[in-house]
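Suppose you are handed only these lines of text.
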Amino acid sequence: MRPEAATGVGVACEGVGVEADGRPILSNVTVRLTARRTAVIGGNGSGKSTFARLLNGLRMPTSGRLRVLGLDPARETKALRRRVGFVFTNPEAQILMPTPAEDLALSLQGVPRAERAERIEAVLTEYGLAGRGEVPASGLSGGQRQLLALASVLVTEPELVVADEPTTLLDLRNARRVGDLLLGLESRLVLVTHDLGLAARCDDAVLFEDGRVRAQGDPAEVIDEYRASCA
Amino acid sequence: MRPEAATGVGVACEGVGVEADGRPILSNVTVRLTARRTAVIGGNGSGKSTFARLLNGLRMPTSGRLRVLGLDPARETKALRRRVGFVFTNPEAQILMPTPAEDLALSLQGVPRAERAERIEAVLTEYGLAGRGEVPASGLSGGQRQLLALASVLVTEPELVVADEPTTLLDLRNARRVGDLLLGLESRLVLVTHDLGLAARCDDAVLFEDGRVRAQGDPAEVIDEYRASCA
Amino acid sequence: MISLYRPGTGLLHRLPAGAKLAGLVVCALALSLWRPEPAGMLAVVLAVSAMYPVAGLPVVALGQTWWRLRWIVLVLGGALWLFTGADTALVNTGRVVALLLLADLVTRTTRMGDLLAVLERVLRPLRRFRVDAAAVALTISLTIAMVPVIAGLAEQVRDAQRARGTRLGVRAALPLLVLTMKHADDVGDALVARGMVR
Amino acid sequence: MSASPRPLGADLARIAVFAALIVVLGMVVVPLPGGVPITAQTLGVMLAGLVLGARRGALAVLLVLALAAIGLPVLAGGRGGLGVFVGPSAGYLLGWVAGAVVIGLIAHRGRFTWWRAGLGAVVGGILVVYLFGIPVQALVTGVPLAPTALSSLAFLPGDLLKAAAATVLAVALHRAYPRAFESRAAVVVHAA
Ligand SMILES: Nc1ncnc2c1ncn2[C@@H]1O[C@H](COP(=O)(O)OP(=O)(O)OP(=O)(O)O)[C@@H](O)[C@H]1O
Ligand SMILES: Nc1ncnc2c1ncn2[C@@H]1O[C@H](COP(=O)(O)OP(=O)(O)OP(=O)(O)O)[C@@H](O)[C@H]1O
Ligand SMILES: O=C(O)CCCC[C@@H]1SC[C@@H]2NC(=O)N[C@@H]21
Ligand SMILES: [Mg+2]
Ligand SMILES: [Mg+2]
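From them, the structure of the protein bound to adenosine-5'-triphosphate can be written out as follows.
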């Protein structure tokens, strides 16, 4: 049924293009992501976020062929969203409920009520938020908020996690913590980041430029190419 | 009249404390900033932004003595704001007008009308925004927006520029451009940043921890101390 | 945002929310149809006030509510006296005060979640008109979560203005509006990505 | 908020976030002794109609009222609870909902222009709101209609200023962030 997933291709893009207002944002993107952890790098406006959003159907290609976990985002959007978790840059926009416990509960709607409270406690503890389940989420620090946002996504156990610059707003310690968490996941990871140190720790890297893929391959080499292109 | 400014002390803090909701956010901060460019570093919630906001009277000390450019922020707020420019992290919040040209015009209210249009054109060109004066500011890229925010502050020729993580949302090239711009200023600069590479290029550095100054001095040494404290 | 509910174990606290709401509606109707003598209305106001201690609410709560109503009592009472005479003034002011006290009693003794549940139950029959009660509940929680975020945005905008030494008056609301609408788009994306809505 | 198809994320988020904005505007308030305050929330109501249109604008206002009903202090000056629905200002609150609908209907009919926005703000944001507010206030307080209406004139200067402000702001927003006015389909591109 899903030959691509079976052969380990997480994402397969063939000549994918995206247009907005008649202007191309992505043009002829052809990549196959087979590694467990792929970094996506490139300049502001190069199309990284647009690419990331393709992967869970937040945005649809206007041309080309796209398969994510073997699914067609245009036809199997719902199944895709269940299997792909998305982490945004700004945790304020993705914490949807007034308190951490309620936000986690929202992700755990499928879990029986009795089990849920226990699961929530466990997750809060795991993410360093023990005892903060009932305080307003707006009272958490920046780092704690991003950890909560992450927890609310990961608790659904997605097969593919897409993260769009999840560490940008964090300090050294929190960035490291969130970075370690993401890189340590068992699921697949597509990590959009400006933090080249983090990108270097992935297994594969893709460099975007002006809506095209400029390079893909060993993170160290791709990062060098990016640095060179900026000089 | 302004002995401190004359002797080169940009900021003089003596035992400054700030409280919010009865909880201390800054405690007994005693620093003198005499260098042209000072980096302020430290973890999330350590008090960096609070310190930066003291410097143009966005926040008032609840104890201690503070002088900025020889002025007392509590009594000479207006004069202080004229001489201190503040750059925030999020350019969205500080672009106050619908288009770049209008936003610059807001800063140039003192300039005669005839001259203003010309000045605006010149500034737009200088900041790489030529020809974009009349487009909606929301249509600019992230980097362009931060450049505009910067331009609107610098065009008033402040004597001291305080910038609170101005490069966080930018890519390599834009971060470098904004960083170069700030570090190349003739005026004094207080630069709050998580980008340790940028901090290293300043002349002086202050490390905050839990609302206290943990270290001040040569940036390389202070940065080492910060790294060590995070490990 | 802190709810106006005050925890307790009194009689009113234990009554189901639906019953309290129904009671409030009945009282409101009765009070607006009934035309008593001033003495009767005075008795009603005293009786409602007496329900505060009966419900286990501290006397301070009663004092607070009365204190908040002081202007209504004085101004409304005064105006009515002027236009309609002393008796009617007493009856009408008494009616308003009694109703406000009653509503306040229900608010103080009913948990937010219980009121939400009643709201959901009331909306359920509207399903035929494509009103999704669960979506309403989700939206209410979402709004509660967004209030501090928008308040934070308002603070950012105010600071930016002060820092630039400009006074924009109402135009100050423009950057706030832009930020708010952009934020809404981000939240919309998160709702979709987290599978809450289509 | 329709059952099936489920509401689109962008739509729902805009309604919720705008309701939150109206709540935040409640912090700007001039309490009046008669029990009906002068509040910047009416500016928010006008903007809701102008920016979100009739349906979503009214839903945003309804949401604020629902928050008040379940006991949250979301109205001007931190008031809330069921009391506001039996008090002198109850009619104005109803008028907000109707007003947002009328504003949206007027302003979103055809191309968005400043005069349509202004007309909507005055008719929907003032006329309709008073139409609901004044009779209910008279009914609740027992003060005859004429003096009640007369006393409501105190709101008129402020409300006219707010209508002007809402118009200026909506037109400026239309220039600064045109996407805010687009229909949901353009915001989130969906599979069928
Ligand atoms: N809905 C849209 N309508 C029009 N243009 C858009 C839209 N979304 C994105 N763009 C444009 O597409 C380009 C790519 O945007 P994208 O957000 O993917 O870049 P990015 O690589 O993520 O940049 P950054 O590093 O700043 O986050 C930009 O020029 C952007 O302005
Ligand atoms: N108005 C306020 N009321 C209460 N607490 C506040 C207020 N402003 C800041 N704080 C608290 O003061 C502490 C210091 O905040 P500050 O913003 O100065 O930190 P920071 O060093 O800039 O952190 P970051 O790197 O995350 O920007 C934090 O714990 C914060 O929660
Ligand atoms: O907060 C409430 O209880 C509702 C306030 C209603 C205020 C009305 S709306 C029209 C008029 N304009 C104002 O500024 N206040 C009143
Ligand atoms: Mg991006
Ligand atoms: Mg800060």
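What can we learn from it? The beta strands of chain A are 11-20, 23-33, 37-42, 63-68, 84-87, 160-164, 188-192, 204-209, 212-217. The CA atoms of residues 124 and 130 of chain A lie 5 Å apart.
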